[in-house]
DNA sequence: ACGGTAACTGACCGATCGGTCAAGTTCTGA
DNA sequence: TCAGAACTTGACCGATCGGTCAGTTACCGT
């Protein structure tokens, strides 16, 4: 509604589609129908704008962090965590896309570095297991994130409220991460 | 060995770590210990350099395309395809990383557009099935690609000859794509 | 009505980018 | 030996970038 929030949303879409480095402040200004100087009035720098665009998603994943203990719990616990993870990806699809595709090139940006640390903590929360288990974990979470982030690039629309996709994703992740001893 | 191949390798590493837009010709020149003008003598433009860096990987995945028919075949056929896919990812890790993280922002670059078309053809070769099957396919291939491309960002080294990782990945992809009727 | 503050803008600045060019150097084959 | 091709380079160019600033307009409490 406000100009600031419009700029934040415009930046989120632009950063996701053209990349942070490929997006000029002018482009964001044009998308929100204001001048470049006006963008820099609301956000003191391009980096501040990226921070504002990503922060909600990072707060959400940080809130998910305490629940990683559920990964070592019962089947129901692990299921609860996966539901939270998938919902997080679907609700913050653009932010997830920005992080997945550009975190490597933007490690020197504080907000991205913070997000990377949280992801690493989630990965570390997984109890030390076999290589197979590590690969299962990486393929599951990475595959889900990549699927939702890049779905649009291959014609598949991933609407935030696509419950069929959500349920299917949770089911398959559940199956992939289930202890093999339970088979 | 030659200056041209050294520049191609330097560009591949730089594009993968800093991104195409985040890499200056000067940076590639410095990595190969030559001048910026010398880079533009061997490759007429920055885009030509990206083309040269990605082409071997794209040729390899194009060669894999005829084998997508195996996805509809027996378990052994599907296994053969997955072996080819995983080996491709491991042998062209940097090119895969560039494509996975930057194909969205570089759609207007011909060599990237060509790669995207090939990926789409592979995805389309999968016979029309349920949403579950589509999600399985996307999580498997996307997860494997993302794991190998981004492994370095999370401390896990994915050496091109890590047979343990390779075998584990193939086994899990096999399991993920096996028809549920076989369970 | 009015003073102050928030919002907005065009003009401008220094830096960096991709790319060109003329000149110099090194290599090679006859 | 030497002509010409291959290679390398510093200097330079126009364009675009992120960011600054002085000045203008719109809004709001009193």
From TrEMBL, chains A, B:
UniProt cross-references to InterPro entries, sorted A to Z: Homeodomain-like_sf, HTH-type_TetR-like_transc_reg, HTH_TetR
**Which residues are in the HTH tetR-type domain?**
1-61
Record's signal peptide: none
Superkingdom of origin: Bacteria
Which UniProt keyword terms apply here?
A: DNA-binding
Which residues does UniProt assign to DNA binding? 24-43
Q: What is this protein called?
A: HTH tetR-type domain-containing protein
Organism equals: Homoserinibacter gongjuensis
For this protein's source organism, the top of the classification is:
Bacteria, Bacillati, Actinomycetota, Actinomycetes, Micrococcales
């Amino acid at each position: 509604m406000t100009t600031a929030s419009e700029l934040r949303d415009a930046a989120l879409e632009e950063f996701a589609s053209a990349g942070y480095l490929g997006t000029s402040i002018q482009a964001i200004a044009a998308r929100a129908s204001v001048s470049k100087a006006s963008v820099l009035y609301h956000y003191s720098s391009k980096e501040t704008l990226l921070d504002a665009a990503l922060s909600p998603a990072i707060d959400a994943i940080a809130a998910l962090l305490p629940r990683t203990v559920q990964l070592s719990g019962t089947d129901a616990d692990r299921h609860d965590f996966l539901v939270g993870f998938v919902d997080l990806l679907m609700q913050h699809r653009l932010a997830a896309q920005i992080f997945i595709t550009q975190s490597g090139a933007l490690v020197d940006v504080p907000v991205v570095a913070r997000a990377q640390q949280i992801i690493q903590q989630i990965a570390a929360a997984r109890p030390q297991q076999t290589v197979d288990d590590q690969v299962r974990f990486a393929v599951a979470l990475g595959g889900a994130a990549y699927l939702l982030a890049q779905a649009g690039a291959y014609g598949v629309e991933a609407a935030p409220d696509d419950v069929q996709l959500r349920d299917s994703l949770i089911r398959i992740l559940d199956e992939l991460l289930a202890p093999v001893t339970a088979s």
